[in-house]
Specification:
By secondary structure, this protein is an alpha/beta fold. Helix content is 48%, strand content 11%. It has 19 helices and nine strands.
Length: 405
């Protein structure tokens, strides 16, 4: 078997022990390019899933199989998922005094899930613990805090979140903080921003995250913030759920120069599955869909008290109609291929944004569909070693470089 990836953890992992060694050897000798065998042998790590925000509202038990949403522990196992970074998120309407509290509430919900299903999922804090979880056939759970506003301008709150397991901090969400500007605000509100890029406090925060071994996530911050971080960080960074601006020019995607700078830093961009980031024609099509069903969307928003979740439910309600505006799977594969060719296969990974959006490419319905990506990459010439890196090896390298373990 292949090692996880160049410069990553140097151990051989047979991650599905339920397959006997004899059977696995036979399978690989019969067809070395069997997509499912290659997929199952890879360590699959998804760097962004928003299910915790969803279950706080829906109260679903994702330890058991669900008929809605994109994630539960049963389907994750079927899809070959070995490690998941769970997003800790709240919107910009959560101000000081409530955002940090809500972050901890979401972390509590993950802790509760782990306590209910200790044989299926475990919290990990570094690459060595991730290795042990894979050996034990448990989903390795990690915590990504999506939005610097959740630390409420307090460095001690970073320490608190890190102690609870935060593996990365997304410096901003769509809203800027007092110390870092977001991609949305740099694009649409630049002239009104009190600070563009990192402030002195922002630079202190970057240094502190480096010292703690917490990865810096640059998926939401603006271009100025992006380069300000790269100028001072002493660790490789990530973009936990982004795509290519050249393929779809939306503020949340990274342009070619940013991608090249991220690659030079040794970092990784994890590809977002959201249709609006993958397909440049999607936003116009979905706008027509939403206008048509505005009354239903307004009603669902009142029920769920959350516009994003209401949008997800609306798409499920009119599935046959919403399916028609989803991009093809080939567009998602092209995102991976474009960035891999631009900056190298060592700098691409998977950051689905499952349970955080209303639409994904055709065929990507939930976590059972990850193997389709492996199959498509094999078709266009990617090797098993390449796939091992994209599926999880690249994440492990950066994670280890930040934590030292």
């Amino acid at each position: 078997m292949e090692l996880v990836g160049k410069n990553s953890i140097s151990f051989l992992v047979i991650k599905k022990v339920v397959w006997s060694i004899t059977f696995l050897t036979l399978l690989k000798s019969v067809n070395a390019q069997n997509p499912m065998a290659i997929h199952q042998n890879a360590i699959l790590i998804d760097t962004h899933n928003d299910v915790l925000s969803s279950i706080i509202i829906t109260r679903q038990d994702v330890g058991k199989r669900q008929t809605t949403g994109n994630f539960d522990l049963e389907r994750a196992k079927e899809g070959g998922l070995d490690a998941q970074v769970f997003s800790i998120w709240c919107g910009e309407d959560y101000g000081k005094g409530s955002a940090f509290k809500f972050a901890n509430r979401e972390i509590d919900s993950l802790y509760a899930l782990i306590a209910r299903y200790p044989n299926k999922i475990t919290l990990v804090r570094n690459a060595a613990e991730l290795e042990n979880a894979v050996k034990q056939q448990k989903l390795a759970a990690m915590i990504g805090v999506e939005g610097g506003h959740m630390i409420e301008d307090r460095i001690d709150y970073i320490d608190s979140l890190a102690k609870r397991g935060m593996c990365y901090l997304t410096l901003t969400w769509n809203n800027s903080t007092s110390w870092a500007s977001s991609a949305r605000d740099e694009t649409y509100k630049r002239s009104s921003l009190a600070n563009v890029g990192l402030s002195d406090l922002g630079r202190q925060i970057v240094h502190h995250l480096n010292d703690l071994g917490v990865m810096i996530d640059l998926s939401h911050p603006g271009v100025k913030t992006f380069y300000d971080v790269l100028a001072i960080t002493n660790k490789p960074v990530i973009a936990s759920h982004s795509c290519s601006y050249a393929l779809n020019p939306v503020p949340r995607n990274l342009n070619d120069d940013q991608l090249k700078a991220l690659g030079k830093n040794g970092g990784v961009v994890f590809i977002n599955f959201y249709s609006g980031f993958v397909d440049s024609s999607y936003n116009k099509k979905v706008a027509v869909f939403l206008r048509k069903h505005k009354a239903e969307l307004d009603s669902l928003t009142k029920v769920y008290h959350d516009g994003d979740l209401a949008n997800i439910r609306l798409n499920a309600l009119y599935k046959s109609e919403s399916d028609k505006i989803r991009p093809p799977l080939s567009m998602l594969i092209h995102e991976i291929d474009y960035i891999a060719k631009l900056i190298g296969v060592d700098h691409v990974g998977i950051g689905s944004d499952f349970d955080g959006a209303e639409s994904y490419p055709t065929g990507m319905n939930d976590v059972t569909d990850y193997p389709k990506i492996t199959a498509e990459l094999l078709k266009i010439g990617y090797t098993e070693q390449d796939i091992n890196k994209i599926m999880g090896g690249n994440f492990i390298r950066v994670y280890r470089a930040n934590t030292g373990k």
